[in-house]
Amino acid sequence: MNRKLNFNTTFVTFGILIVLLVVFIVEIFMGGSENNYTLMKMGAMSNYAVVAGNQWWRLFTAQFLHIGVLHLVSNAVIIYYMGQYMEPMLGHLRFLLVYLLSGIGGNLLSLALGSDKVISAGASTALFGLFGAMTAIGLRNMKNPMISYLGRQAFVLAIVNIALDLFAPNIDIQGHIGGFIAGFLLAIIVGDRTMRKYNPKWRVVAAAVLIVYVVWTVRLGMVVKF
C-alpha cells in the first residue's frame, strides 16, 4: 500500500529543517561554518559575549547554527524522526514552543557550567528538549503501550548520546543535559493536544522548578571565569 507524507501534520518540523539548512548556507557564504568569526557574527554561544557584551540573544540564535555539515545532518535526521510523531501529538504551537525554549534552556546550562573560553552552536540543545518532552509524555501515558514505548525510546536515546558525549571532544554536554531538563519540564507545563495532561499540581511544580532553573543558571552564568 502506498503511503504519502502529510505535510499538514508536520509542517513545523519541516519549517525548522528548512531554516537550519538556509542558515547553514548563509554560514558558508559568510566565511564558513567552522570559521569562528562567522559563527560569532551569526550568533553562536559565547559565555563572555553573553555576559560581558550583554548579548543574551545568543541563547536563542545559537540553536540555528551548525559547525560543519556532519553536525547539521546528524541533528536534522533526528529532528525529522522525532517531529514525525511528536508534532501531531503535541500540536504545532506546543511543539514549536518546546523546541525553541528547550534550545534556550540548554544554552542556559552551558552558560552556567560550560567553559567561558569556547564557542558553541547547534540544534542539539533543542533536540534534547524533544527527548525530554517525549520522556515526560511517556511517563504520563504509561498505560498506553505505544506512547510509553516512545517515551522510553526517547529517554534511552538521550542517555546513550550523553554517554557518548563523555568520550567525544568538543561536545557541549551541559547544553544537551540542559535541553533535556527544559524539554521535560515544558512538556509537563504545556501538556499535549491528544493525550492526557499532567495533574495541575504537577504542572505548577514543573513551572516552579523551571523558574528556579532559569534563575540559577543565569546567576551562575553571570560569573565569567578565565
Automatic annotation (TrEMBL):
Signal peptide: none annotated. One of its GO terms (biological process) is proteolysis. The keyword Transcription does not apply. It is a multi-pass membrane protein. GO terms for molecular function: serine-type endopeptidase activity. InterPro entries: Peptidase_S54_rhomboid-like, Peptidase_S54_rhomboid_dom, Rhomboid-like_sf. GO terms for cellular component: membrane. Keywords: Hydrolase, Membrane, Protease, Serine protease, Transmembrane, Transmembrane helix. The keyword Manganese does not apply. Residues 54-191 form the Peptidase S54 rhomboid domain. The chain crosses the membrane at residues 12-32, 64-83, 95-113, 119-137, 149-167, 173-190, 202-222. It holds the Pfam family Rhomboid. It is found in: Membrane. This is Rhomboid family intramembrane serine protease. It comes from Lactobacillus intestinalis.
